[in-house]
Automatic annotation (TrEMBL):
It comes from Sphingobium ummariense RL-3. InterPro entries: UCP032025 (IPR008320). This is Lysophospholipase.
Length: 134
């Protein structure tokens, strides 16, 4: 079972803007996130994904292609340039990345499937997430 990472979708106004950023790197074959430290459990992340947090919710994932040193004392998290929608799940914001076990990861949404939480107004969904109710 692969291990996953979670990370805040920093500077993304919405999951759609995150998707657009990822897909803008499709010609390059990968999108890259910079991190200061290489994860200690890097071998367990093979076959895993980076799960994106937006508005205190896990909203999607991008499969991890690997890690690469930047040459400046940092590392790139190399990602497939796509966002796979997942069933929304509350997730508290945090700095950097955190590990997520396979059994704790939300399932992918099927093509055309809509998450019930997305039908709710964004403000209400955010308030319920802040209170830990969704």
């Amino acid at each position: 079972m692969p291990l996953h990472l979670t990370k805040i979708a920093f500077r993304s106004e919405s999951p759609d803007s995150l998707r657009a950023w990822l897909e803008s790197h499709a010609d390059e074959g990968e999108a890259r996130m910079t991190t200061r430290y290489l994860p200690k459990r890097v071998e367990e992340l093979a076959g895993g994904s980076l799960y994106w947090i937006h508005g205190h919710m896990l909203v999607g994932r991008s499969p991890i292609l690997g890690f690469q040193e930047t040459g400046q004392g940092r590392y790139w998290i190399r990602l497939e340039p796509r966002l796979i929608a997942v069933r929304s799940m509350p997730k508290r914001a945090h700095q950097g990345w955190r590990y997520l076990a396979e059994e704790d990861a939300p399932p992918d949404l099927a093509a055309g499937e809509v998450d019930d939480l997305h039908a709710m107004p964004k403000v209400l969904r955010g308030e319920l997430a802040r209170l830990g109710l969704v």
